[in-house]
Amino acid sequence: MILRILAGKVVVGHAIYNDFKALKYFHPKELTRDTSKIPLLNRRGGFPENVAISLKRLVKELLHKDIQVGKSGHSSVEDARATMELYKVVEAEWEQHLLLNPEQE
Q1: CATH superfamily ID and name for 11-100
Q2: What is the pLDDT of residues 43-91, one digit of tens each?
Q3: What is the pTM for the complete model shown?
Q4: Interatomic CA distance for residues 18 and 60, integer angstroms
Q5: Parallel, antiparallel, or unpaired: how do β-strands 11-13 and 32-34 relate?
Q6: Using CA of residue 28, residue 88, residue 43, residue 78, what is the dihedral sign?
Q7: Hey, where are the domains in the chain?
Q8: For burial by CB atoms within 10 Å, which of 28, 58, 68, 86 has the most?
C-alpha cells in the first residue's frame, strides 16, 4: 500500500535511503529530496557541504528548535515535521538548482 502511494511522487526525508532500504524499495533519484544531502542546508547552518549532518543538529541550527529530546527517543511524526520544515527553508532555491543541474539530485 505505502509503495503505491510513493510511486511517481516527490518524497522528502532525512537520510531517506535508510527508510527505503528498510522497505526494500527503490525510489527514483529525481523524485527524492534527502535533507541530509542538500548542500544549501548545510551551508546555511554553517556546516561543511559534503558532510551528512544529523536532523537534530540541522533543526537546532536552522529552525532554533530542539527535537528528539523525549525519554522515548525519536518520534517519527516529529522527525517528519522537522524534515519538511527544513526542506521548506530551501525548497524554491534547491528546486531551481535541480532544474538547472539535474545530475546533482
Answers
A1: Ribonuclease H-like superfamily/Ribonuclease H (3.30.420.10)
A2: 999 999 999 999 999 999 999 999 999 777 788 899 999 999 999 999 9
A3: 0.88
A4: 22
A5: parallel
A6: negative
A7: 11-100
A8: 58
